[in-house]
Amino acid sequence: MEKEEPLIYINGKFYPKSEASVSVYDHGFLYGDGVFEGIRAYNGVVFKLREHIERLYASAKAIMLEIPMDKEEMVNAVLETLRRNKLKDAYIRLLVTRGVGDLGLDPRKCKKPNVIIIAEPMLPLYGKESKLRGISLIFSSVRRDRVDATTHQIKSMNYLNSILAKLEAIDAGADDAIMLDERGFVAETTATNIFIIRNGKIITPPTTTGALPGITRNFVIELAGKLGYSVEEREITPFEVITADEVFITGTGAEIVPVTKIAGRVIGRGTAGEITMRLIEEFEREKSNAANGIKIYE
Ligand code: PXG
């Protein structure tokens, strides 16, 4: 028997993957004019779904895109997509594009945003062994977009800034890249937030560097508190990263991943650090806890 195709949500209807498409006149395609979320479900619980929906609507507000449904309807659309695909563990991509317009960039020509929800079984982003061995980063020469420009505080469909940095990382043979703000302070990586540990203190850059207010980042701050660590949000220099005892990154796809090499320098002892491991263990325990998300099936 052939494997069933995933069903994709587009504007309230479900289409098999091979038939799920949007117009080449959609300004999401023509201009990257839209917003998105990457979300995960663990064992029947959509992790921090309400927080993701809140951030989606905040991003939409920032680009003056009116989402044609309310937040509760959006929560239900995500849950329904997971049910239709009979998924308990999944990666969910939720997009709202400006919609179909003409070839000019005037958003007023786009009368109806497109709402798209894709849900698929999750493939681990960095693989299991990277959780123990750690990954390598470089410092990208591509600066994070300015907070008074196309800031990554908006989770928009324009990721060229990150992609340019990712290309640099690939070219250098590293797993990913740290992006600095225009002043030279550490912001985040191409698609994750970054934390460093120095003398038992956990530190992460503020979103004023242009870093996305990551949902995993917030959760890690919460978990650290439970484990008795406080997290300081302050500006971090490249020097402080290189000479840190431990470094790790956080994101929906990545979860928590130790960083053991940066720009050729070995971090700490070159393996996942002790506090990082404790946070990973706590994250593993908590990620499918119904208190941290919304149940798909009752
Ligand atoms: N910074 C940027 C620029 C991001 O795009 C994060 C940080 C981490 O945020 P969350 O809320 O996921 O903790 C992101 C996340 C993925 C994926 O599969 C994630 C993002 C974009 C594309 C894929 O993890 N954004």
Structural commentary:
There is one protein chain. The chain is an alpha+beta fold and 298 residues long. It has two domains: 7-120, D-amino Acid Aminotransferase, Chain A, domain 1 (2-Layer Sandwich), CATH 3.30.470.10; 128-286, Alpha-Beta Barrel (D-amino Acid Aminotransferase, Chain A, domain 2). It has helices at 27-31, 49-62, 71-84, 128-133, 160-172, 215-226, 238-242, 274-286; strands at 7-10, 13-16, 34-42, 45-47, 90-97, 114-120, 135-139, 176-180, 186-189, 193-198, 201-204, 231-233, 246-251, 255-262, 265-266, 293-295. Strands 7, 8, 9, 10, 11, 12, 13, 14 and 15 form a nine-stranded mixed beta sheet that branches. Strands 2-1-6-5-3-4-16 form a seven-stranded antiparallel beta sheet. β14 (255-262) and β15 form a beta hairpin. The protein is globular. 3-[O-phosphonopyridoxyl]--amino-benzoic acid is lined by residues 38, 152, 162, 188, 191-193, 212, 214-217, 250-254. The site of 3-[O-phosphonopyridoxyl]--amino-benzoic acid has 17 residues, from α6 and β13.
Return residue spans where pLDDT drops below 50 for at least 5 consecutive residues.
none
Reported for the largest beta sheet, the result is: 9 strands, mixed
Measured distance between first and last alpha carbons: 30 Å
The CATH class of the largest domain is identified as: Alpha Beta
What is the number of E strands? 16
Average pLDDT taken over every residue: 96
Structural class, by secondary structure, is alpha+beta
Number of domains: 2
In terms of DSSP E residues, the strand content is 25-35%
Please provide the ordered H/E string of secondary-structure elements: EEHEEHHEEHEHEEEEHEHEEEHE
Can you say what the CATH homologous superfamily of the largest domain is? D-amino Acid Aminotransferase, subunit A, domain 2
Give the overall shape, derived from the CA principal axes.
Answer: globular
**Number of H/I helices:** 8
CATH topology (level 3) name of the largest domain: D-amino Acid Aminotransferase, Chain A, domain 2
Which kinds of small molecule does this entry bind, naming each only once? 3-[O-phosphonopyridoxyl]--amino-benzoic acid
- How much helix is in the residues? 25-40%
What is the CATH architecture assignment of the largest domain? Alpha-Beta Barrel
